[in-house]
Design goal:
Radius of gyration: 17 Å
CATH topology: TIM Barrel
Structural class: alpha/beta
CATH architecture: Alpha-Beta Barrel
Largest sheet: 8 strands, parallel, barrel
Helix content: 40-55%
Number of helices: 11
Length: 245
């Protein structure tokens, strides 16, 4: 199966929230992404609601239900408020990230040594409601086996160090770390996702090296490119980059 694209709508909501107005409309932009062939939508409702608001979640959940076979992914730190939110709206996938409340964006994976029991309890609770779980991990092959031990269905590799560097030797080093982690996930019988600073330029090498890569969640680069190409064409180009066209 080719890799699939989940469009992260946080950047749209962040722009909307700069003013006390209802635009840009996250539901309208989400629909445009799905109409262009995106396999799903991702949101990360943080406690301060600086981008996606909790009130956006039911509207987007209903939108995705209009498109059979597409998926809704909610990511976030699994405190009680977050867990009640996902239990109320039942996304297809819940991605657990170890963000601090004021963090600008996700930038590291879970510390399984200190959070093993906590994650195991959280994942058991989520899976009782029939939702797939993914845990955010650093590009470290050992993390895949640890993710398996807490009961996760998938891992999402933090690809910021790969996507966010330009020096050729550093790019190659970080690429190899991501690939080794992806192969370790496959060995551990875990599904594989990836996200952060992935672009049309750096995705083809990754999907070629990791045929088990099931999903990439991308927001910043998509909406940056959409200024130039428009959202529908940008989604199409990203789908080409991951081999989904």
């Amino acid at each position: 199966m080719p890799c699939k694209l989940s469009v992260n709508l946080n950047a749209v909501a962040y722009l909307r929230n700069r003013r006390h107005v209802p635009w840009p409309d996250v539901v309208k932009l989400g629909r445009m992404a799905l109409e262009a062939g995106a396999a799903g939508l991702t949101v990360h409702p943080r406690p301060d609601e600086r981008h996606i608001r909790r009130s956006d979640v039911p509207l987007l959940a209903a939108l995705v239900r209009e498109y059979p076979g597409r998926e809704f992914n909610i990511e976030g730190y699994p405190d009680d408020d977050f867990l009640r939110l996902v239990e109320a709206h039942r996304p297809h996938q819940v991605t657990l990230v170890p963000d601090l409340p004021g963090q600008s964006t996700s930038d590291h994976g879970w510390d399984f040594g200190t959070q093993h029991n906590f994650l195991g309890t959280v994942i058991d609770r989520i899976k009782r409601h029939g939702m797939r779980t993914s845990v955010f991990i650093d590009p470290n092959a050992a993390a895949a086996a640890l993710a398996k031990s807490v009961g996760a269905d998938r891992v999402e590799i933090f690809t910021g160090p790969y996507g966010g560097t330009v020096e050729p030797q550093a790019v190659q080093r970080e690429f190899e770390r991501v690939v080794a982690t992806g192969k370790a996930a496959q060995k551990a019988s875990l599904g594989l996702n990836a996200g952060h600073d992935l672009t049309r330029a750096n995705l083809p090498a990754l999907t070629k090296a990791l045929p088990n890569l099931a999903e990439v969640s991308i927001g910043h680069a998509i909406f940056a490119d959409a200024w130039e190409f428009g959202l529908a064409e940008t989604v199409r180009q990203f789908r080409v980059a991951i081999g989904d066209v």
